[in-house]
Amino acid sequence: MRDAMGRPQTSRTKIEEIAVGYYTNLFRSTVSVSRIPTPTQEKAPRIEECAIRQMKPRRAPGPDRISADFLKSASKTIIKQLTKRFNKYLDAQRIPDQWKKSNTVLLFKKGERDQMKNYRPIALLSQPYKLFTKIILNRLERQLDEYQPVEQAGFRKGFCCMDHIHTITQLIERTREYKQPLLLCFIDYAKAFDSVEHNSVWNALHHAGVDPCYINLLEQCNTDTFTTIRMFQRELRVPIEKGVRQGDTISPKLFTTALNHAMLQLDWDDKGINIDGRKLSNLRFADDIVLISQNREELQQMVEELDDVSKAIGLTMNRSKTMVMRNEWADASPITLEGTSLPFTDSYVYLGRLISMDNNLRAEIMRRRRCAWAAIGNIKEAAHLVSDKKLRADLFDSTVLPALCYASETWAENKTSTLMLVRAQRALERTLLKINRAKQRSLNLRSADMRLMSGIRDAEMYAWNAKKRWAGHVVRRTDDRWTTRVTFWYPREIKRTLGRPATRWSDSLKKLQGNDGQHWSQTAQDRQKWMEACARR
Q: Residue limits of the Reverse transcriptase domain (predicted)?
């Protein structure tokens, strides 16, 4: 293992020192954030029910060796005692000291194995502690969600990755059709969840109107915490002075609350791209932020302002991974951050989907094909041992097909992309059946015969059904989120140039319009009519 100076170390003691030094430095508080005092109010309502049913099974236990499966199986026996204990902790505003400890396991990611930064730390918390904070989360979730703007889609009920993927692809599609400039800056924070300062979280909860008793309790849950790392025989103790606790069910909400509190200081109401009289300046999915502008100078200012408020809560932008993407009508001058030019890119993998300014699906379907091959590699051995045709097909449909068709809801598909998808599935199907092309020709098997043998679902229809389902959701939304706004937006003050536009996302949906001439979006507003229209095509 290499130390901070880049020198290789081989002794166990030195390797342990490197690990402790790296993570102690990572979790050390570096920004002083003043704490807003919270007044003492009435006690929180007592806990009457536990959230044991909501716990996910087969989760590794923490330092106390109590597993989630044990809590679920013994819930009828221990629920009264747990409730009594939890109410005691709630009234005292204090948790057991054992809950402040976590065990960390280091998993290699990629790169050089002798670099500590190339290992992902997985923290194992006490399962009773996670159950306790889950109950607190259930009480605060609605309030914390209402504090978030529609730009934040991360860890919120009713929101998903497709919301922002769809919004970005529609922006690219419309600005390309009307030849308007578009600049996107994809922000990457270094160790975001591990870096946010504790006081910034408690101040944000106070600003969100959370009851002080819950703020004080959560503060107590995150004070004097530490983790242990076992490299060889010894347990190495690392104090944690900042960041939200990894593996804690409430941690994502705490982070997004702190981030939104910081971004509320930004006066961006007049920045971004005008969508029917309202400016869209950014989209967020937890710590994944996209800044949107049509002007280079404006984007430069937005990057600098976001960097300032981010530093105030302990977040640092990763200069090498923060990317800028522009279309051919935008200013090509560089965007800088503290004298460093941010790299331009022609494409960017955003929330799992490859985004490019030409909206060409070729590169994305090639990525989907690679992901599908990785997925079938994981199940191939098991699939070849299964003799039941239906079970094997279900295994393929539940693992490989979602990997192949991920984000197909947002595809502006054409004949070329559809053919690529069909060919990719046929190759995967041959692997599933252990029939190569030569054997297929010798047996005189057509593609339809192979499909009867495999029994798997058709990828083209799978993607098409997902798109129809998603289109219905987008049209029927009533919460004024950007997904719906951008879908039906176009620059009304600009006249589109002559010539046939590139394939639009909505072009394939026009096939669902009935003989009455009603637009597909009007039909989709009625769920039953939309289902009937989708069943016909």
A: 88-355
Contact 224, 100 (CB under 8 A): yes
Range with the poorest average pLDDT among 58-67, 151-160, 289-298: 58-67
- β-bridge mates for residue 325, sequence order: 184
Contact 194, 242 (CB under 8 A): yes
CB 182 within 8 A of CB 214: no
pLDDT at 33 over 90: no
**Segments in 226-361 forming alpha helices (H):** 251-263, 296-312
How many C-beta atoms lie closer than 10 Å to residue 403's C-beta?
18
How far, in Å, CA of 356 to CA of 361, rounded?
A: 9
52 contact partners, CB below 8 Å, separation of at least 6: 71, 72, 75, 79, 131
* Closest to 317 in 3D by CA, of 338, 286, 332, 299: 338
What single DSSP character describes residue 282? E
Cβ neighbours, 10 Å, residue 194: 19
321 has pLDDT over 80: yes
Q: 225-230 and 101-108 as β-strands: parallel, antiparallel, unpaired?
A: parallel
Decide the pairing of beta strands 235-240 and 273-275: unpaired
**What's the DSSP call for residue 228?**
E
| Tokens matching residue 512 | 């669902």
Which class for 244: exposed (0-12), middle (13-18), buried (19 or more C-beta within 10 A)?
buried
Q: Answer yes or no: is pLDDT of 42 > 60.
A: no
Rounded Cα gap, residues 106 and 143, in angstroms? 35
175 pairs with which residues across the strands? Answer: none
Task: Tell me if 428 sits within 8 A of 400, measured CB to CB.
Answer: yes
**pTM for the model:** 0.93
Q: What is the largest distance, in Å, between two alpha-carbon atoms of the chain?
A: 81
Report which secondary-structure segment, H or E, holds 37. Answer: none
Nearest to 294 by CA among 268, 331, 341, 333: 331
Do residues 485 and 166 touch, judged by C-beta distance below 8 A? Answer: no
CA distance 187 to 61: 34
Residue 425: band (very low, low, confident or very high) from pLDDT cuts 50, 70, 90:
very high
Distance CA 6, CA 14 (A): 13
3-state helix, strand, coil in the chain (%, to 5): 50, 15, 40
CA 119 – CA 128 distance, rounded (Å): 27
Two tokens, residue 40: 């003492």
Q: CA 253, 139, 202 angle in degrees (round to 5)?
A: 45
Give the span between the Cα atoms of 265 and 317, in whole angstroms. 18
Q: Which long-range contacts (CB under 8 A, 24 or more apart) does 395-402 make?
A: 396/428, 396/432, 396/454, 396/456, 397/456, 397/457, 399/375, 400/372, 400/375, 400/376, 400/428, 401/372, 401/456, 401/457, 401/459, 401/462
Domain ranges within the chain, ordered by starting residue? 12-150+209-250, 161-189+260-353, 360-508
